[in-house]
Amino acid sequence: MAISSPTDPPGEGGDADEAGTDPPDDADPATPDEDSIAAASGREWWRRYLREHTAHALVVAAFALYPFLYALLAASPLGTEVETLLPRVETMVAVFYFGLFAMSFDFVSGYTGYLSFGHAIFYGTGAYFVVLAANGQIPLLAPGTPFMLLLLLAGLLAVVIALAIGALSFRLSGVYFAMITLGFAQVAYVFVRGWDYVSENPRDGAAVSTEVHPGGFDVGVPGVDALNLAIGRLTGDSVELLFVELGGTEVSYYMVGLVVLVCYLAMQRLIHSPFGTVLLAIRENEERAEAVGYDPFRFKLAAFAISGFFAAIAGGLFAGFRRSVAPDNSMYFLVTGDALLASIIGGFGTLAGPLYGRLFDETVREFLSKRGSGGGLLPYLREHLPASVIEADLVGGLTVGGAIETFLNGHASLYIGVIFVLFVLYVPNGLLGTVRDRLGGTVAKQLPEYLDRYRRD
Amino acid sequence: MTGAVLTPLIVDALGEFFRLGTLSEVFVNGLSKAALYAMIASGLTLVFGLLGVLNFAHGSFTMLGAYLGGLVMVVLVGSATGDLARVLFFLVGTLFVFAAIGALGGAVEVGLIRQLYDRPPIYQILLTFGLALVLDEAARIVVSFYGIQPITDWRAALGTKPAFMVENLSVAGLSVSPLALFQIVFGTVTIGAVWLFLTRTRYGMVVRAGSEDDEMTAALGIDVNRVFTTVFALGSAIAGVAGMLLMWDPVWGASLPLAHETLLPAFVVVIVGGLGTFRGTVVAAGLVGMVDATMTWWFQNAITFTGLPEMMIFLVLVLTLIVRPQGLFGVEEVGGH
Amino acid sequence: MSLLELDGVETYYGESHILEGVDLEVEEGEVVALMGRNGVGKTTTLRSILQLTPPREGSIRYRGEELVGKETHEVADAGVGWIPEDRRMFSQLTVEENVRIAVPKGSDVQAGLDLAWDAFPDLEEIRDRDAGDLSGGQQQMLAIARGLVGENDLLLVDEPSEGLAPLIVEAVHDALEAVAGETTILLVEQNLPMALDLADRFYVLDHGVVVDSGDADEVSTDSERLRRHLSA
After folding, report:
1. For chain C, which terminus, N or C, has the lower number of CB atoms within 10 Å?
2. ipTM of this predicted structure
3. Domains and CATH numbers, chain A
């Protein structure tokens, strides 16, 4: 195998003779169609916007209805089945903020082709920043600083870090780029794991002090009390909507989801702009992009900084909801690994795919969770299988119950890993990527035409 | 830690460090760590050199080797077993682990990695990443099933060490660890054997040629695919044996986290030495081992920052990639297609 | 039956349609020159024969046996040798090792070495030097030695004179002439005088197809016939 030079641009290095399947090409975002030309006058821009975002609206609606749906079904005769199969609302909050992290990972790695193996550094920065600020440990910031401002500042801090790391890292490509970003992230990980300013036991991380910051973190318009809702399982606000009581977790679901949605739309706008087109050009053939006149270094650095910004916001949301942070769940390279996992299952280079990938991951994990809280396979089987079946011997003293306990419960990683490997082998474009391949373009673009076909008939 | 307190501390420590006794202890310690790092990393570099695959499951093979080796020792060694017998059992166990993990590696290559030859190398990396997840969790299942603590070192396996390796000896006024010496000898022999294989056998020559230019090698009538499988098996086998060696070392020990505890340093060694060059890996292992031993001494005696050695190692990685990304012995541009 | 037959060979690099239907034949014992401007697909033709860049359409028969679909090492085993552009030395192996590795499985390695040293005594003198330290001319000789030692009935030679000083080119020419006595050669070469001197027949490639062919003594280096297809 010819070892590519550390500075080879990706996509080069004599691979011309390989029948390579690149990460999926995002359907060309910039071709105008007749409708948009006709509406270019601006009169019907909102109609055009809705049409182009029908799919998004449907997805948002689905997510918005989810907690109600879950509650309704849980109360129905199918209750236990529903609880077993569907993720709890609390889990969905994690899907949102980690999904944002995974989407930010895709923003840089999927669209430029440069794998950011150290991406956890941004997530961790966001999380630690929020916790430390809440505890009054960030100079110039009072513990009561609005959460939204904290998120913004954390994001900006991540941008600075990204620019510094990127300036040194983007001279490299491929494996070398991945390794240097990993190196930087691990330095940060080890540092934060031993820095006693963080807490008494930095190895275990830090928690938001209930003395200094007893209230939940407010999401909304900073300063306007009425337009803010606090998040957190216990510290979240409760809201009465019609006849339904939404608890702290449900409110967190909506507020975190809202922030994630806004961030997603921002990233999406960037991808579907001339900026995004250049990124794709760089991914396909960096040398050619340079020859045409773009400075790939600037664009890569910008993409990296933007992705770091949103990754830090994701970390901030995580810390805001969980009210604690540890090096192992925020800065460690396995955290980046989880984002990678979500991206492959959801679809690299699709932006929304990683969110669905994470949804899949968390659903399976909860299904096979050891504690069985929120419904899991073992409690379900325990409830519904007769004791005789559970106690039945399978092999040499191992009961059916024992087998489920040993091989299934708490071992979701095994099956997700297997699925991951299968995806790499047979579904390399991920779930959303494959859907897009079948439709011939992004869902947002194809859906209106698809629906039109039914309307005209 | 304020600067005023820091300076005299550092000066004192420097004085302490530059004594012959300290330096020799650190040197021996560094050599033993170098031996371990060389064993952890050499399989990775062989595989990358030939297949172009950065094997994320490499650490998992080390971890599996540690547990498998531990199992062999726990089974064979009883409380009455003499020291010499324990060492002999260890060597026998090494052969077993070599064969078993090597077979696993070969199966993985043929069954999984080979499917991705035609795709960009990123997919092979992703595949090995997923494989690591599967192997680690499968090991967790087995280990929990038998009631062994998954994240702490396997006590029983550690206990199968010969008695003379448990305590440090006093030799000429220095404190010497027999375990470290064993590691140095074992590592040297293993690396030496691989070196001889690469430079003195025809197959080794084929591996070196294929690492440089697999197209030309194929055009000379050599079935490169089969060489790929063999090298992947060999690389995995070495990783497994490294694990067995680590199993006896109280600093590492057989545990599930061993997989990524060894994977990351392996990456560092391989990159610093030059991806794909065996010579580079050995030299880099020496460098990283010395840095590790030196920083460990400083952590224990002056700078109270846990993770100082670890951080330094990653800084070496970052610095190398900034200053000389192809590594110490890496070639800038290889192959001309 | 020709030693080598290409029939409607179409090869792609990614999505680039390089060869669009190449037909050519090489008889045993001949030297055939393959000529054309840069980028028309001469190297790709050789790579297609070796299955390094397998054709998508068409057939390539060697001694009547279909090569398309085979592995590269199988093609090499059958007796097809490659002396590629840029020589492609194993720079980290010694000169001697570069020759050793070319000796086919099962053949006597020492006999192979002796054959190489007889043909290229200069190489024997530097047998322990790393191939990466050799000059361009020495590397080319080593590449030819590799082709010789490989017991090949057909040698695919790609631009052997490229980047070499005129004096060295002469030496290369002589070496190839000697080799041609024992083997069939398909020669890609931009150096027209050398190509036409060595070759018995020639083909001209343009836009991925053969546009002209004939006996080498029909044309001279400044003939209008060639200039049409070979000038930029």
Report:
1. C
2. 0.91
3. 90-357 (1.10.3470)
